Amino acid sequence: MIELKQVSHQFKIGKKTTERIVPVLHDISLHIEKGEIVAIVGRSGSGKSTLLNLISGYLRPSEGEIYVQKRAVTRLSEGEWADFRLQHFGFIFQSFQLIPSMTAFANVELPLVLKGVKESERRKQTLLMLERVGLQDYAEHYPSELSGGQQQRVSIARALIVNPPILLADEPTGSLDSENEHELLRFIEQLNKEQGITFLIITHDDKVASFANRTILLQDGKIVDRRLL
Ligand SMILES: Nc1ncnc2c1ncn2[C@@H]1O[C@H](COP(=O)(O)OP(=O)(O)OP(=O)(O)O)[C@@H](O)[C@H]1O
């Protein structure tokens, strides 16, 4: 489903005369199968977010090839990436990244607007999705009028509305209390079992890491451990 072949990445910082190269990821080879829940762990600065940004095309690797569902995505243009991303990936973040001036309904509907789905169909799908995450009574609430757990469910509904086969999550439980965390993990498990959605989750949280099928430990930009838990 996702394959990285000898991927390395470095950032260039500073202007031409003072340019400095910051190597971040080194020779990463990795294979993630359909239906896996994989946790990426490692210290701050070890390259976890960079890895996720490479897989989702927000960054291009300095070296190596990345394949998503057998497509050599490293060769996609910016425009092709935008379509490809919308079809293949959903995103969940620690800070939810909802648009504060838009209701729960409008936040969840947004990817369908970007996809050009017509209004009556959008309405139907958005209401169904809000129901699936148990928020049908909160459609007209703004993010500031929802609890952290509810906001995270809106962000999951927004991620799922275009039926992506892969969900990428960056510290999804980071802002949740233990009850909401437990609920989120159960929901992830359900989506994984019932719909075969593949999850790639960056986490500092041992509970999330032990919940995953597999943990990839990054240290100084290298994979040092691949544990099957
Ligand atoms: N755009 C950038 N330009 C220059 N350096 C960057 C850039 N983005 C990240 N880095 C550097 O790359 C390294 C890895 O960063 P990254 O965000 O991938 O780590 P991380 O493991 O996700 O950390 P955290 O757990 O703190 O989020 C860090 O040293 C960081 O300073």
Would you identify the regions where 5 or more consecutive residues have pLDDT less than 50? Answer: none
**Helix proportion range:** 25-40%
The chain-level mean pLDDT equals: 91
Please describe the biggest sheet, giving its number of strands, its sense, and whether it closes into a barrel.
6 strands, mixed
Which term fits the overall shape? globular
- The top-level CATH class is Alpha Beta
CATH superfamily: P-loop containing nucleotide triphosphate hydrolases
Architecture overview:
This protein is of the alpha/beta class and 229 residues long. It has a single domain (2-228), classed as Rossmann fold. The chain has helices at residues 48-55, 78-88, 104-115, 119-132, 148-160, 178-195, 206-211; strands at 2-13, 20-32, 37-41, 63-68, 71-72, 89-93, 166-170, 198-202, 214-219, 222-228. α3 (104-115) packs across α4, α3 packs parallel to α5 (148-160) and α4 packs across α5. The longest helix is centred in the last third of the chain and has 18 residues, at 178-195. The site of adenosine-5'-triphosphate has 12 residues, from β1, β2 and α1.
